[in-house]
Structures are given as structure tokens and as C-alpha cells.
Write a structure and sequence with these properties.
Number of strands: 0
Largest sheet: none
Shape: rod-shaped
Order of helices and strands: HH
Structural class: mainly alpha
Number of helices: 2
Helix content: over 70%
């Protein structure tokens, strides 16, 4: 029986030492939690994406659009010039007709 008593005492001593280890571990966890709570919150990293550069195809499309627009403006200018010339001829013809009509009176 004394052998069982010695084993029980050893088990109690071991349990006491285990509770000390457990208490130290719990204290370490509490200390880590406190240290983490005291750290200032860090700002989130910048999520800004830089603008993508235009590809060669996009530049080619822009160049074609500018060329087509330029040709369109040239044709519009030519049409206005023709319209102005026709209007001038019509005005001269009408003026001449008016003069002839006035002479006939």
C-alpha cells in the first residue's frame, strides 16, 4: 500500500508541476494578447493600380481615326468652297437679270 501511496504522491507532485507549466503558458498567452492590443493599427497597403499604357493596336486605331477625320474635314471644306462659288454665281446672275429687268421698264 505504501507503494501505491508513493505513486499517488508522485502523481500529485507531477500534477502540481503541470499546473505551474499551464499557469506559465496561460500568462504568456495573456501577455502576448496584451502586447498585440497595444500595437497601433497599420494602414492598409495602397491598392492603386497604375494606368495601363496603350498598346500598338490602340495607337494605330487612334491614328486611323485622326486620318479619317482629317479627310472628312478636307471634304467638308471643299464642299463649302464649291457652295460659296455657286452662291456667288447665282447672285451675279440674279443681279444681271435684275439690271436687265430694270432697263426694260
Amino acid at each position: 500500500m505504501s507503494d501505491a501511496l508513493e505513486q499517488a504522491k508522485a502523481a500529485v507532485a507531477k500534477a502540481e508541476s503541470n499546473t505551474d507549466v499551464l499557469a506559465v503558458a496561460m500568462a504568456a498567452l495573456e501577455l502576448a494578447k496584451a502586447a498585440q492590443a497595444q500595437q497601433p493599427a497599420q494602414a492598409p497597403a495602397c491598392q492603386h493600380q497604375p494606368k495601363q499604357r496603350r498598346s500598338a493596336g490602340e495607337w494605330l486605331g487612334i491614328a486611323c481615326a485622326v486620318c479619317v477625320g482629317g479627310v472628312g474635314i478636307a471634304f467638308a471644306s471643299l464642299a463649302l468652297a464649291i457652295l460659296g462659288g455657286v452662291a456667288a454665281i447665282v447672285v451675279l446672275v440674279l443681279r444681271d437679270m435684275w439690271r436687265d429687268f430694270q432697263k426694260g421698264k
